[in-house]
Amino acid sequence: MEVDFADGLGWRLLRPDECVRVKYASAGQKDIRLRLRHGNQTWLAHSRVEVQMEAAANRYSDNPDEIIDLGGTILNFFFDCEDRKLRKPLIVVEGFGGDMVNYDKMNDLIDIDISPDYKLRDFLDSEGYDLIWVDWANSNARIQDNASALEAAIEYINARKHADGSSLPNVMIGASMGGLVGKYCLLHMHNVQEKDAEVERFFTYDSPLTGANFPVGIQLFV
Predict the structure, then answer these.
(1) Is CB count within 10 Å lower at the N or C end of the chain?
(2) Residue 18: which of 3, 6, 33, 8 has the closest Cα?
(3) Are strands 28-38 and 2-4 parallel, antiparallel or unpaired?
């Protein structure tokens, strides 16, 4: 199925159950065209809508739309669409800190201004990302143990995504210790278990991937 929303982007290939956010540069009457192909047949449809300018909505709720406890991890879901279907996961893996670090940190970060009147949350929303904050049940556990817990979380996310009709890849971000856990998890899944984590991009922030300077670390801690 293809739709031209009259937003200047032309025809877009869509799934019947796909949630799409359309942005218009101006208000007024818009001509929407739909093209459905099946075998050698093609159906065309046409509709007209009136677009009114409104104040920008607050993208993503401040509190999770859903919380899933998997034992080793607690997944906090912030869905992009109101139907609460998981389509395009952006997985944020928290660092060391236990109860002192939670999804409030993510909410603070996505409120950063990219440009005047345009925040990071607006960009993520326009790209259709569903945000998932990964909490550790025990942030003091071994890196390997939390990596196993993260593997189970990724498998749950992928299974749910597929059940919701999506095959879009995941993006994963690991902060500090979360970067170490994420790297160990992905390498183990791909190289040892020969599983596809469906993670297209993996970013780390402030993660000691090449090791930590232990004496300096102790000095700073003291």
Answers:
(1) C
(2) 3
(3) antiparallel
Q: Which residues contact 56 (CB under 8 A, 6 or more apart)?
A: 122
pTM over cut 0.85: no
Which residues touch 222 (CB under 8 Å, ≥6 apart)? Answer: none
- The predicted-structure confidence for 75-106, as pLDDT tens digits, reads as follows 999 999 888 999 999 999 998 876 667 888 88
Give the DSSP per-residue string, 176-188.
THHHHHHHHHHHI
Question: How many Å apart are CA 200 and CA 170, to the nearest integer?
Answer: 6
Secondary structure (3-state) at 3:
strand
- What's the residue count for the chain? 222
What are residue 75's DSSP bridge partners? 68, 134
